[in-house]
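hey so i finaly got around to running the thing on Kanamycin resistance protein from Meiothermus hypogaeus NBRC 106114. pasting the sequence first so u can double check i didnt mess up the copy paste, my clipboard has been acting weird all day
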Amino acid sequence: MTYSVYTAILSAQTIVPWALPYAKKVTLSNTWPRHGKVTLKPFTEALTETEWRRFYECFRDPEIAEWNGSRPLKMPLWLFKRVVMGEVSRGDRLGFGILDEKGEWLGTVELYEMTRSEATLGILIGAKDRWGQGYGTDAVKAVLEYAFCTLGLQKVKLRTYKHNLRAQRAFEKAGFRHVPTPPVPTPRFNFGLAPKSEFVPMEITREEWECF
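ok and heres what it spat out for the 3d tokens, dont ask me to read them lol
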């Protein structure tokens, strides 16, 4: 699954270090979005140092970076924090940490490219020992309920890599459907090598979600 914060992180320039407030412990709030086994902690809440570290390390993992179509992160932790919080302050996205039943950090999910009627979803489960256990699907369901019921959006879209079948199955379990991929023009002189599409677009409307 493509995750938009990569763009900001990987294109960040040198910035003067700064301090961020840290929470001393994780207290799950009843007001945070939740579904099944997961609770979504808004990025507007202070993250613990452990949460920051787990968030940071998942971007440094070569396997996760490959699935995300990127490369392992090399910037220092302080700069990572600065870039993430800069993205949080933007008005066209909302980010959440994904916490399990015990409040442990599993990954992140966000709504970005937000308008009054729709948004694009991005998700990253950094805890590889939890892959294939339904945490990603629960996180997607939680953020969809927030998008449609709290934000009043009419559609949520996403883009995932064609080879990432596990992610596609998780999205289908949450109600997403595949949508046609726009045709890619064939170059006049391509010597028989037609371009291949890397991404698979999916989406779900509010009406489809209500009937799912």
